[in-house]
Amino acid sequence: MASSPSDAHMALLGTQFADLSAALMRDDDTGLDPQRVVRFATRSIPNTEHCGVTLLRPGHAPRTMTTTGELPQQVDELQYAVHEGPCLDASETDMVAITGDLDKDERWPVFGPRCAEETGVQSMLSVRLALAAEDQAAMNFYSRGRNAFTELDVGVASIFAPYAALAVEQTLREQDAANFHKALSSSRQIGTAIGIIMARKLVTSDEAFDILRRASQDLNRKLRDLAAEVQETGALPTTREKDPASSSEGG
């Protein structure tokens, strides 16, 4: 049975998406590269000057995860400072936030005029990224021209959004795993250091932890770093304060 023109178009489309996925992969083929995603997205939307990704995580300040230049970072920092703007709206509430006259847009009465005056950016397009759990994000496009973005641009941005979401998701999971292993290692080091202090000073675990904590404060060093040294050397570094156990002699 002969294939129809629509079958050929779908096959071509599938090949193009496969080629795009390959182009957005990291050099080691371990996943999508967020930086490549924003670069390719910028090239695919002629009227944009830059692209970036805004990330919102519970318990953390908003941050710009990746960009194609300094301009997005400048614009985003202003949004984070005044708590309003298209990047935040797209991340939190709207699927798409688009504007072509920031200095007059009533949705962002503080951010809009300041952004136009301080950065020259008049047009922005932000598309929400679908992330797991409570993480939120948006891919954002920036232009100094007025009314720079069209409905076609929204469509093209929406094609890149799933790639950006996957790249962000993978990066976050890798960061979370690294932080977990670091915290676990620190916990083990602190536990070992407490055991060493208990054995050397014949004190309880609570007293040993208090000794370690006070030494950390006195030496102005992080607790985990001090614990690592105790684990390595088997002794607590000398502090400016005398150990109460050795203070029985008169001055």
From TrEMBL:
This is GAF and ANTAR domain-containing protein. One of its GO terms (molecular function) is RNA binding. The keyword Transcription applies. The keyword Amino-acid biosynthesis does not apply. It comes from the Bacteria. InterPro entries: ANTAR, GAF, GAF-like_dom_sf, GAF_ANTAR, WH-like_DNA-bd_sf. SUPFAM superfamilies: GAF domain-like. SMART domains: ANTAR (SM01012). It comes from Knoellia koreensis. Residues 230-251 are annotated as: Disordered. Keywords: Transcription, Transcription regulation. Residues 169-231 form the ANTAR domain.
